[in-house]
Amino acid sequence: MSKRSNWSIPYVIFLVFFVVLPLILVMVYAFQDAQGKFTLGNLAKFFTDRDALSTFAVSIEVALENTGLCILLGYPAAWILANKQYNKSAVTIVLFIMPMWINALMRTLATAQLFTMLGVTLGKGTLLFGMVYDYLPFMIYPIYNVLSKMDKSYAEAAVDLGATPWRAFWKVTVPLSMPGVTSGILMVFMPTVSTFAISEFLTNNKIKLFGTIIQENINSSMWNYGAALAFVMLIIIGITTLFDKDKDEEVEGGLI
């Protein structure tokens, strides 16, 4: 263990068994039928399954709404936390991150119980409330991370050149903080599409998301079709990650 690179061996083993191997199994099952023969029927079934397509459309709609709400609430919060003029204590940052220390399932169950006690009808509104409550920290932290490291002299220079503080914010601060916003969107949008526990508990399963369809197929021992649906999610995640990489390269190249 004298070489520093040897310390990475446990992490490599972990990645192989708990990341790479499960992904390979998903792809293998996705392109097999019940007899273990190669087939594209599982993927073709998704594009002809009205229930799966409608659920996927609902999932995209809910994910867009949740992501939009998280940006509207998260960006101002991140800006206040990163601005030492308004936030002079690290305790405030901890208070925003603290909900992440509690298991997401426990938070969801507590939220559902709270709505039941208040007599609130479970539906789309309670679902979005729970989504925002669970995923808002994932939007705040990457934006805060970028804003806190941003060189404040750029905005100050814009004000010195005649721009109003509001215009300097929109023309300087917001564009420079877009990498954080993009990371926040990825951390909120994709998990929202693929989740199932939040929609089940906060809507009494009235609203199904894409993750629910995958779960139902796996629980019904329809491993191949469930794996195909999971593979579709992997493709979407991969595509969005590539777009995020292109954005990062643009920022590094100064194109913003």
Could you give a quick summary of the protein structure above?
The protein is an all-alpha fold and 256 residues long. It has helices at 9-30, 41-48, 50-82, 90-97, 104-118, 124-149, 153-160, 165-176, 178-194, 197-203, 210-219, 223-252.
Describe it.
It is a single chain. The chain has 256 residues and is an all-alpha fold. It has one domain: MetI-like fold (Orthogonal Bundle). 77% of the residues lie in helices and 0% in strands. The chain is built from twelve helices and no strands. The chain has helices at residues 9-30, 41-48, 50-82, 90-97, 104-118, 124-149, 153-160, 165-176, 178-194, 197-203, 210-219, 223-252. Helix 2 crosses helix 12, helix 7 packs antiparallel against helix 8 and helix 9 runs antiparallel to helix 12. The protein is globular. Residues 250-256 have low confidence and may be disordered.
List the helices and strands and how they pair.
Layout lengths: L8 H22 L10 H8 L1 H33 L7 H8 L6 H15 L5 H26 L3 H8 L4 H12 L1 H17 L2 H7 L6 H10 L3 H30 L4
Shape: globular
Residue share in helices? Answer: over 70%
Low-confidence stretches: 250-256
Give the tally of structural domains. 1
Indicate the radius of gyration in whole angstroms: 22 Å
User: Major beta sheet, specifics?
Assistant: none
Helix/strand order: HHHHHHHHHHHH
For this structure, the CATH topology is MetI-like fold
**Terminal CA distance:** 45 Å
